[in-house]
């Protein structure tokens, strides 16, 4: 059963319904579900779906010819293979689909270009001269994000400015990922998402009839299962120097977020080299450089600013629990690693992804105009602000801290402060007061709203005070089951 990707399918179908030729580029990291989404889109539409392989240009042309000649085009009656790529691409306009668009999907298009660097130019010339005026829809799909962004679509390259649509697919959000486990409790849906993230390939390895614990043991920690070797397989496929990348990813997974800390922990002494490795991981969609929500664009250009985090929850899980205990797992000590390493730390591990779930919840509420104001920016905030300190004058002092969720209106006249607690005890009154104290100096010039998110409910004092202040309290069930 195909799950999610409503936005992607709507985009593709809207383009399909538009008049005139369409040249689309759809790309994203490996395993994100591009091929499955395109196949779902192509269902019940006449189409040609061609998957490129890592082979020679001659074999690629032969294979593409074979696929095109399966259709009832004029060339079928007198050739068995196109003489060159120009003739092969020109045949797209001959597809016998009547009034329907002549739909052609070329999956892993970068493989085709690596074999023959002239292909983008050939396609560009045909598009400009003929195909753009035909009722055709060509979709170029690929996983090599750096190639697509820097070579295929960049200025001065042949296809620059020709695409009528460019869509970068990202991993699923929590609400789509949770559909893979419809019978799980709200807590277990968050736990599963914290472990697997929103990559469809990973989500499909999970058995929704088994518990979270049993799935982790059987489908991640057991030698021979797909996810056991997934990280190693992907890195070897995409990168050289995998031992160094392993060290860097592990450092980030274990909470080292600053460039210097990552460099020291991974034993890569030169921070400039570490920065290059991190840049490559960012291009693969495994790591992201994150800034406080209020950071100006000019400040983001500073290479020393920002923090690094793993965008892929599964990578974070593997490098936190699997990578460091690989020898025991190779020996088959799955139960031991789970009971003594994973289980004691799993709940705390899920707290960070829970913040992402809460931010997605707030984004959905904004789309439905259910917030007290419309924010222009929303995300994690880091910096110096007021914190409670009974020993300090006035009970407050300035310290470096974080805000899990900060929404800021366009003119910065209204703020939404959100704090997320994924733990087995209720959101305490002390934690609530800490939340109210943050950004106190700004309260003279702006209106503040508060939202608290909690797995295990709220202290009774919070519930009383929240009614007076208009603070929004969101339980785990409200967050997870929001529609």
Keywords for this structure?
single chain; 483 residues; alpha/beta; five-stranded mixed sheet
Write the layout of secondary structure elements.
Elements: H1 6-17, E1 22-27, H2 34-42, E2 47-51, H3 57-68, H4 85-90, E3 102-107, H5 109-115, H6 119-129, E4 136-142, H7 145-152, E5 165-168, H8 174-177, H9 186-196, H10 200-203, H11 212-219, H12 230-238, H13 242-253, H14 259-265, H15 271-283, E6 287-290, H16 297-300, E7 307-310, H17 313-322, H18 326-330, H19 334-349, H20 351-367, E8 377-388, E9 396-408, E10 414-421, H21 429-437, E11 447-454, H22 460-469, E12 472-475, H23 476-480
Parallel strand pairs: 1-4, 1-5, 2-3, 3-4, 10-11, 11-12
Antiparallel strand pairs: 6-7, 8-9, 9-10
Helix pairs in contact: 1-2, 9-17, 11-19, 13-14, 13-17
Give a quick rundown of the structure.
By secondary structure, this protein is of the alpha/beta class. It contains 23 helices and twelve strands.
């Amino acid at each position: 059963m195909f799950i999610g990707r409503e936005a992607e399918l709507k985009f593709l179908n809207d383009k399909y319904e538009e008049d005139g030729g369409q040249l689309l580029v759809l790309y994203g990291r490996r395993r994100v579900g591009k091929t499955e989404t395109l196949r779902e889109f192509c269902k019940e539409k006449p189409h040609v779906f061609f998957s490129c392989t890592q082979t020679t240009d001659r074999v690629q042309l032969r294979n593409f010819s074979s696929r095109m000649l399966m259709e009832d085009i004029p060339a079928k009656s007198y050739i068995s293979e196109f003489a060159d790529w120009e003739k092969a691409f020109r045949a797209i306009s001959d597809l016998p689909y009547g009034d329907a668009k002549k739909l052609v999907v070329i999956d892993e298009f970068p493989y085709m270009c690596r074999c023959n660097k002239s292909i983008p130019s050939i396609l560009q010339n045909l598009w400009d001269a003929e195909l753009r005026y035909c009722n055709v829809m060509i979709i170029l799909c690929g996983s090599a994000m750096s190639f697509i962004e820097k070579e295929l679509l960049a200025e001065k390259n042949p296809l620059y400015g020709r695409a009528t649509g460019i869509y970068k697919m990202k991993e699923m959000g929590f609400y789509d990922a949770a559909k893979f486990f419809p019978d799980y409790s709200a807590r277990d849906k968050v736990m599963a998402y914290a472990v697997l993230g929103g990559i469809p390939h990973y989500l499909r390895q999970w058995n929704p009839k088994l518990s979270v614990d049993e799935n982790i043991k059987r489908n991640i920690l057991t030698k021979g299962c797909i996810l056991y070797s997934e990280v190693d397989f992907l890195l070897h496929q995409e990168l050289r120097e995998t031992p160094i990348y392993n060290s860097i990813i592990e450092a980030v997974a274990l909470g080292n977020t600053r460039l210097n800390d990552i460099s020291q922990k991974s034993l890569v002494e030169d921070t400039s080299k570490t920065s290059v490795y991190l840049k490559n991981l960012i291009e693969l969609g495994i790591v992201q450089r994150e800034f406080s929500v209020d950071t100006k664009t000019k400040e983001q250009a500073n290479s020393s600013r920002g923090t690094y985090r793993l965008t892929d929850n599964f990578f974070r899980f593997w490098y936190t629990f699997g990578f460091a205990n690989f020898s025991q797992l190779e020996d088959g000590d799955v139960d031991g690693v789970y009971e003594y390493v994973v289980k004691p730390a799993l709940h705390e591990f899920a707290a960070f992804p829970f913040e992402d779930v809460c931010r997605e919840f707030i984004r959905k509420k904004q789309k439905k105009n259910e917030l007290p104001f419309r924010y222009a920016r929303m995300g994690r905030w880091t910096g110096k602000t007021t914190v409670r300190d009974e020993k300090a004058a006035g009970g407050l002092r300035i310290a470096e801290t974080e805000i899990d969720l900060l929404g800021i209106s366009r003119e910065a006249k209204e703020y939404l402060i959100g704090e997320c607690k994924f733990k087995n005890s209720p959101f305490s009154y002390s934690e609530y007061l800490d939340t109210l104290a943050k950004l106190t100096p700004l309260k003279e010039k702006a209106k503040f709203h508060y939202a608290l998110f909690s797995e295990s409910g709220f202290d009774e004092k919070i519930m009383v005070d929240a009614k007076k202040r208009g603070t929004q309290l969101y339980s785990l069930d409200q967050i997870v089951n929001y529609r």
